[in-house]
Amino acid sequence: MATGDISSRTSTFAGAPQSVTGARLAADAFLAALARTRPPAEADHWDDILLVVSELAANAVQYAPGDFTLRMRRTFDGVHVTLHDSSTALPAPRPFRPGTGEGGVGWHLIHALCDQVSVVPEADGKDVHAFLPW
Description:
Blueprint: E1 8-13, H1 18-37, H2 43-63, E2 68-74, E3 78-85, H3 106-113, E4 116-122, E5 125-133
Antiparallel strand pairs: 1-2, 2-3, 3-5, 4-5
Helix pairs in contact: 1-2, 2-3
């Protein structure tokens, strides 16, 4: 990424398990470029965004076959994360049962860390929008 003002970044991933790492690295590179001109208001904001991206990517890999696209955009007071995947099924919270290995915490974490979360169904899947402070 070029230095200077950065407003958005879009990356597409194959939807394989290693794509979660790729999405997290792409998000980290976007945040590093953003921080050069506009550092986060609190240090935790960076980690929160990386965690949300990781959870969204992991959900896409687990529940939506094929590629997914991650778009990150700077907003006036934060970062807008959009993840588009191929599944038309809307995400829903599941009970979290520690010790079972069944997951269930990701969607709850996303909602806890974000200022706003919305899901927009599309003909070829859905967009999950997450707004986080920066």
